[in-house]
Amino acid sequence: MSSVATLPLPAGAGARPRSAASLLPWVVLAVLAAFPLIAPAFGLEYYIGFVRRLLIVMIAATSLNFILGYGGMVALGHAGFVGVGAYTVVAMVEAGVGSAWAAWGMAIVISAVFAAAIGAVSLRARGVYFLMITLAFAQMLYYLAVSLRTYGGDDGYGIYTPLSLGGLDGLHADIFYWVVLALAALVFAFSSRVAVSRFGHALMGIRDNETRMAAMGYPVYRIKLVAFTGAGAVAGLAGALLASHNNFVSPSLMHWTESATLLVMVAIGGMGKRWGGPLGVAIWLTLAEVLKLYTEYWHWPIGLMLILVVFFAPKGVATLFERKEKTQ
Amino acid sequence: MDAIFIFEQLLNGLGYGLMLFLLAAGLTLVFGIMDTMNLAHGSLYMAGAYIAAKVHESSGSFLGAVLVAIVATILIAALIEWLVVRRLYSRDHLAQVLATFGVILIADDLVKAIWGPSPIMAPTPAALTGPVQLLAELPYPAYRLVLLGVGLAVALGLYLLVNHTRMGMLVRAGASNRSMAEFMGVRVGRVFSFVFALGAALAALAGALMGPIGAVQIGMGEAILIPALVVIVIGGIGSVRGAFVAALLVGLVDTAGRAFLPPMLRAVLPPSLAADLGPALAGIAMYVLMAAVLTLKPAGLFPARA
Amino acid sequence: MFKPKHAVLAAVLCSALVAQAADPVKVGIALDISGPFAAAGAEARDGFDLAIETLGGKLGGQPAEFLKTDFAGNPEQANQLVTRYLQRDKIDFFTGPIASNSALAVGPALFAAKVPFISSNPGPSQFAGKQCNPFFFGQYQNDTYDEAAGKFANEKGYKNMVIIAPNYPAGKDHLNGFKRIYSGALKDEIYTKVGQIDYAAEIAQIRAAKPDAVFFFLPGGMGINFIKQYIGGGLKEIPLVAPGFSADQDVIQAVGEPMLGLYNTAHWTHDLPLPANAAFVSAFRKKYDGRYPTVYAAMAYDAIMAMDAAVRDVGGKLDDRAAVAKALAKPSFKSVRGEFSYGANNNPVQNYYLRVVEKDAEGKLTNKLVGTVMEKHQDAYVGECAL
Prior knowledge:
The structure holds three protein chains of three kinds. Chain A is mostly helical. Chain A has a domain of 213 residues. Helices cover 73% and strands 1% of the residues of chain A. Chain A contains 14 helices and two strands. The longest helix of chain A is centred in the C-terminal third of the chain and has 27 residues. Chain A is globular, with a radius of gyration of 21 Å. The relative contact order of chain A is 0.17. Chain B is mainly α. Chain B has a single domain, classed as Orthogonal Bundle (ABC transporter involved in vitamin B12 uptake, BtuC). Helices cover 75% and strands 3% of the residues of chain B. Chain B has a two-stranded antiparallel sheet. Chain B is globular and about 65 Å long. The termini of chain B are far apart. Chain C has two domains: 203 residues, Rossmann fold (3-Layer(aba) Sandwich); 156 residues, Response regulator (Rossmann fold, 3-Layer(aba) Sandwich), CATH 3.40.50. Chain C is built from 13 helices and 14 strands. In chain C, strand 12 and strand 13 form a beta hairpin. In chain C, helix 12 crosses helix 13. At the B-C interface, helix 1, strand 2, helix 5, helix 9 and helix 10 of B face helix 2, strand 8, helix 8, helix 9 and helix 10 of C.
C-alpha cells in the first residue's frame, strides 16, 4: 500500500480515484437492484427481506447522520420520529386508507410537524441538555403509544391487509423491495447533495462555531430547526416503511434503546460522512443477526466492538476507507 | 384524601427522590468535575446490588454486605477506568457515551454468565422488615426511613466534602481549570481517580440499598439510569446541589402524579377517558417536568459551568 | 434370484430413506433470554432442553433439528427472526416467545405460511377470539388465570378489593378477566407505569382504601418490586392474590419470605399428583440443581411433547399441514397438567388450580397445591372465534 502511495503520480491520475469514488454509489445501487433477481438462484430469498430492512433503517440513520454529523445535534430521540411515522400509517389503516403512498406521505407530514414542534423547544438547549430533552420527548411519545388502547398499546398493531402500491401492485413479488431501494437511494442522494449545498455549509459552519455564524448574520436557530424538521420527516418515512415491512407496529420501535442504537450505528459508520449511515447500519444489523445464530451471549461482542471503534476509528469506519482513497 | 394521606405521599416522594439522588450524585460528580459522561454508572449500580445481595445472603450481615459491595465496586470501577474511561477524558461526550454504552453491554452479559438471567434474592435486613408507627394513623416502612436517612447523610457529606475540605478544594480547582491547577502543583490525575472512585462508591451504595426493595436483575442499571439522568440534567450537570434539588423535585412530581392525578381526573372527566389519560400522564410527568425546566432554563436549575 | 426390478425397488427405497434422513423435522424456537423477559425465557429454554433431551433429539421417532435464537423480548426482532425461520430454514413448527406482544407480532406470518404455532406461554385474547387461527395452539388463555383468581376471591368471601396492573392493554385485559368473575365491590382500580420501580404511592392508596384483599398483575421485575415494598409497608394483613405467573418459582426465589401465604391460580403446579408430571418435575430438578420448575418450563416441555405426538400421529407426513394442525388439536400425549382438550378456538379446556406459597420439606419456599378452582374451564373469547 505504502509503495503505491509513494509512487509519483502521473498527471491526471488524481482524477481517477475521484471518478471511481463517484461511481461507487451507482455500483452499489446496481448490485442492490439486481439482488432480488439473483438471490433465489442461491437460495437466499430470506436475505431479500433482510436487505430491505437494512435499507429502511439506513434511511433513518442517514437522516440522523444529517443533523448529527453535519449539524452537530446529538439527538437521542430519533426513534420517536420513526415511531410517529409508523403510527401514522396505523392511524391511516384504521381510518380505512389503503394506499401506501397516501399513508407514507401523511407519515412524512405528521412526523415533520412533530419534529418542528419538538425541535422548536429542544434546540434552545445545547450538548447533553439537547440530548436529554430529545430523549424526554421520545419517552413521552413512547409512553403515549404504550397506553393508546385504540392502536393496540403495548400489544402492538397488526396490519392484516398490506397497503396497496397503486399501479405497481402485482408487477413482481419483490416490488416493495425496489420501492424501498429507490426511496433509500433518493434520501442518500438528497442528503449528500444538501450537505454540499449552501444550506449544508451553513449547517456545518454552525456545528463548528455557532457564535461566529450568528455574528455573520446567519439565522442559526432557523437553519437548525429546518434541518431537524427535515431529518424528523425522513425518519418518519423510515417508520412508515418499517410498518409496511413488518405489517406490524409496536411501541418498542420508540424505546430509548432504539434511539441509542441509531446513534451508535451512525457513530460506528462515521458521522458527517455520507457513507456513515449505510455502513453503520450494515455492520450493526449484520453483526447482531449473525452473532445471535451462534450464542445467547451476543451483546458483549457488540459492546467490545463499540469500544474498539471509539478508540481506533474515532471518526467511524467510513473514514478508514477514506484514508485508503487518499493514499492511492 | 386527608392530610395524613397527603403527608404520607409527600414522604414517599421524598424517599423516591433521595433514592434517585444517591445514583445521580455520583453521576453528576463525575460529569461535573471530569466532564465525562459515564453511562456505565448504571452497571456499577447493578454490581453493587448483586454483590451486596450475595454477600448479605451468605454472611447474614447487611452492613458488612454494603461495605463489601462498595469496596468491590470501587475495584471494578478502577479496572473500568484504567481500561476504558481514562482514555475518554479528552474526548467529546458522544465518544464517552458510545464507549460506556459498550461497557454496559459487556457488563450485562457478564452478570448473566456469573449469576444467571433470573433476578436474585436480596433480603431486607431482619430488623428492618416491618413498618414503624410514625403517627398514630401512619405506619411507615422502617427500611425506607433508613433510606431517607442515608440519602440525607450522603447529601450533607458531599456538601461538606466539596465545599469545606482540602480535597474538595483540589477537586474544584481541577474542575474549573485543569492546566492551571496542575501548574500550581495539584496532581489532577490523582484527584480525578479519587472522584471516580467516590462516584463508584455512591453507585454501589445506591445499588446495595435498593436491593431489598427492588428487583436485583440484569438491566436494573439501565432502568434507573434514565430517571437519574433526568435528575442531573434538571439540576444542572455537575452541580451536586442541583442534583439534590432536582432529585427531590422529580421524586415529588412523579409520586404526586401517580397518587393525585388519577383521582383528580376522575372528578372532572368521563371515567373511561380518565382511566386512560390519568396513568398515561402520570407516567410522563417526569419528562414533562424536564422539558419544562429546560425550556425555561436551557442549562438546568443550577448551571455548574456558567 | 436378482432381477433388475428389485434393483430399482431397492434404489427407490434407499433414496426414500436418504431423503427422509436428510430432511429432519425443523422446529423454530424463539428464545427470550435477554431483555425484559429473560428470567421467564430462561425457564422456558430449560423446559425445551429437557424435553429435547428426553426425546433423544427426535420428534415422533424422526430426526429433528431445533433452531434456537434469542430475540431479546422485542416484537420487532421476533418478527424478523420468524421471517428467517420461515424463509430460510423452512420450519415445520414454531414456539418460544414469552410476552403476548411478541406472539401477536409473529402470528400472522406463521399463519399465512401454515406453520403451527404452539405457544409455550402467551395466550393473547386476540388469538382466542376474533383473530383465532387453526394454526395457533395455546397452553392457557391469559385471562383464565385471572378468572380463576376471581372465583377464588368470591369463594373466600372477599367483599372489597383493590386491583392493580401496569397501564397497557395486557394489564387491562388481566384486570377485566378478574372483574368478569369477581362479584364483590372494587375499592379502587390502579394502573401503574410500565417498568415502575417505586410503588410507595400505590401502597399508600391501598392502605387508605382498606380492602379485604388485593389482586395484582405485575409481571417480572415489577411484581418483585411491588411485593417487597408491599410487605415492607406493613400490609401483610391484607392478603395478596395473583395470577400464577406473578407468584411462580422465579419470583419466589427473588423475593423470598415476603411471598409466604400468597394465593395464586394456574393450570399447572409442580406437585400435581400425576405420573407424567412427577416424571417431568424429578427430571427437571435432577438436571437443574434441584430447582423447582415454573409454569414457563412446564409448558415449554409440553409444547415439545405436543409436537412429538403430532409428528407420530401423522406418520411423519409433515407436508400435509392441515393434518398436522388437526393432530395437534387432539393432543394424544400425557401432558404434565393432566387431561385437557382444545376448544373451538384452539385454546384449552382444562382445570385451574389454587396454589399458595409455603415452605417445602427442605424449607425451600415454593408453591403448594391447595385445590381445584375451576374444572374444564374454557376462556371467555371462544364465542368470538369463527373457526
